[in-house]
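Entry:
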Amino acid sequence: MATTRLVSIEICVQTMRGYEETIALARWCEAEGVPALAVADHYLSGPDQASDGYDQLVILGGIARETTKLELCTLVSPLTFRHPAVHLKTAVTLDEMSGGRFSLGIGAGWMELEHEVYGLELYPIGERFDRLEETLGYLKAGIDGSGSGFEGTYFRLAAFDPNPRPRNLRLIVGGGGKRRTPDLAGRYADEFNAFPDKNPIEERIERFRRSARSAGRDPEKILVSTAFPAAVASDRATADAMISRRAERVKVDPEEAASHYAAIGIPQGTPSEAAAAYASLAEAGVTRIYLQLAGASLGETAHAVEAARKTVELATG
């Protein structure tokens, strides 16, 4: 069990719904003291091609005007959806609309089906990460106001200051890769979102820290977070039902989903059963968790957040 030396973990929410459902969730988050609301930026909400898919960055523009304290972010926006100039200008606009509460998460992209359906090119994995590195360099040049510009193989930004300058625009680098993702996060990110994967999260976080130090940055000043499906509840039956609903949504067997969660370290069960996993995350340096609750009602969300907060108390208190 954890000791009092562990730093506590913030419990946040990730969703991917239409505007009316998202604004209701955002208002609930503000009222309940949830620090941040993230959206999953996909054009398909699952393996079913008929499922709803909205432009989540447009939705965040509406949320920005209807909230006052809640941090807003994308986890994450695939580089394949938009040119870096579009990501830059959209993010700067959301920064202004939110009063400096927006963080742009950038990733390499992975869902083959949404690229097939919408005719988007999903580049080979090596090229995708080369493009991700250039996208981050481009965005940093556009955000920092240095006027240095950016010149790469795929993208170019002229040497000028692309006004307006953002107030507090942050970059999130997220993914499950064991090498290039943490390296790029260390060099460019204000937040490293280490998604659970077969590659141990502790090793990826340590690599991220080394990369930050090599780039002359202080890794302690960079937020480390993770995101995973909510699978902790006040009782085991409710937790199992949460896993089953998630499994049905992504069309896998519930037992297979539970085994997969266990294999990659996603906490599940009751707060007491999940406390050790939360303690391990805190020990590794994670200070924020985004519960993935795309299909949950407000009541289910409230239950999941309450259970996660209880788990944090047991793990770090």
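The chain has a mean pLDDT of 94.
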